[in-house]
Amino acid sequence: MTLPEFIYYIGYSLDKRYKLKRQQRLPHTVISIGNVTIGGTGKTPATIDVAEEAKKRGFSPIILTRGYKGNAKGPCLVQRSEVRSQKSEGKSSKQDSSLLFGDEPVLMADRLKDVPIVKCADRYEGAMFFLQNYEPSAMNYEPIFILDDGFQHWRLYRDMDIVLIDGSNPFGNRRLLPVGPLREPLSELKRAGMFVITKTKNESLINELKGFNSAAPVYFSEYEIRRLKNASGKEFPVEVLKHKRVYAFCGLANPESFKQTALSVCGELSGFKAYRDHHSYTISDMRYLEEQSKKTECDFLLTTEKDMVKIKGMNIPENLLCVEIDFSIDRGFFDSVFKNIS
Question: Both 130 and 254 in a single domain?
Fold first, then answer.
């Protein structure tokens, strides 16, 4: 272990010990969806799908999220994205939903129109805010809390920890932050209730996961493109991109994954631009992308749902579409998740 890793590990251990001693429980079931690495393993699509399945099975899901990079302080309900006018260079003249709540919470709010999404760094505080201000007895079914990115959130007790592993690059160089992508030692996978291997069906990974945790079942998931949408929400079939030239861009932790997605649905990529994860787009960015669209003579600009949330209020080229992704997994996964919840 290098010195930077050792310093990180000491801080991680002290934080974990402090918060576990003060861990609190909610009066309702809590399911966590998380991972052991930084970056994109597919937590947002998985959270959306688990919430949708919870509704189908007679529960009233409430999502608890940190709202990474959202400016809103204290516990609050996440609102859907709105189109804002741009009057000056830089960010929106009014704080739009993605700036207030974070891009991923707003994406979930757009997709889950009747599921409450509570933003608060302290997920227990956020849950209590909801329970105290929105009477659960008025809800149609039994409340169930879904904790977005919660595997390291020691403050709140979970009834089930679902851990997602990127099958294409499970653990990077297997080093702790800041040297590698690991948030905690791989031995902590022993806490998982179940594993989901995402993006690639990496069957060789099963034995390694079983070595860390033999009791947790392992499932494979795929990401399916549901449809395409423009900034106003108009839907298009995926076939629109067939045999077309596309210039793709994104602000994701794993841009290569989106690049491969774009290649799978279009004729060819005329160009690709990767911004940093959670990038805050500016007017200059949009001008650059429009210039690239013309320069490369592409038919369409293509981005992700998460990125579209952040650029709705800008002057968006008419040929800009986003890809709407679904989390697809065997029905047995949901049976395992919900079987012990009354």
Answer: no
